[in-house]
Amino acid sequence: MQVKELGHLVLYVADLDRSVAFYGDLLGWEKVTPEGLPFPAAAFSSGRTHHELLLIEVGPDATPVGGGRRLGLYHVGLKVGDSDDELREARRRLVEAGVPIVGASDHTVTHSLYVLDPDGNEVELYIDVPGVDWRSDPSLVMAPIRPLAL
After folding, report:
1. Which fold has domain 1-60?
2. Which residues of the chain fall short of a pLDDT of 50?
């Protein structure tokens, strides 16, 4: 067996409408689920496949995501463009929407902004740095992290 690609991500959310606004309206993923599902859920696609993100509402009394050092998911990375100009535009939209940016990093192969979704999941919004040939030099993928200057 060999994994061919990362297919999709499923998140439990406290408030489906709030998360649909974040992932759909703010981040721009297209909602692909029909109205009237038998349970509160929404699926999104960038067009690459049938769905890349599925949100399932579990209600506000569910246990929140823990902080600090822990096992499990650290963050999910979402490519938002191919240039720093596109990342600057993403930053502008986040700031206008009142979403705090909790980090910004130059990873040599990517430039990244980090935010928290409405349920506290960390989301990396990134662009691949043009001209960086990590296939020829795989060590670039683990290059030291530097502060990002946009």
Report:
1. 2,3-Dihydroxybiphenyl 1,2-Dioxygenase; domain 1 (3.10.180)
2. none
